[in-house]
Amino acid sequence: MRQVVLCLVMFVLLACNTVKEDLPGYSARKVQAMGYTFNVFADDPEFQVVRTNFGLPNSRTYPEAVALAVKKATGCEVSEGSLVGDYNLTKGKMHCP
Question: Residue 7 — pLDDT band, cuts 50, 70, 90?
Fold first, then answer.
């Protein structure tokens, strides 16, 4: 029984680390920013960021960490006011120089 529960938990965690339906086919770029670990999926001008580390995020610093992760992964800046989502999956738009 314990092994069944463990397998179910593993499948759920794997599902949380996949790109969502509107950016299929893009590989993740693993990035660390401000103590968080993210997988960044990007297709200019859109991106999705999946947080992969455990722990309770800080609501004040989390948006800044997402913006920094996108910048590290793509070289592009996050468009102001475009972030939507939660601490596990954040979407937004970016603009590249």
Answer: very low
User: Residue 31 — left, alpha, or beta (φ > 0 → left; ψ -120 to 50 → alpha)?
Assistant: beta
Q: How many domains does the chain have?
A: 1
* Reported pTM: 0.76
Predicted local distance difference test score (pLDDT) of residue 93: 97
Domain hosting 16: range is: 2-95
Which tokens is 2 given? 């314990």
Give phi and psi for 41, each to the nearest 5.
Answer: -110, 125
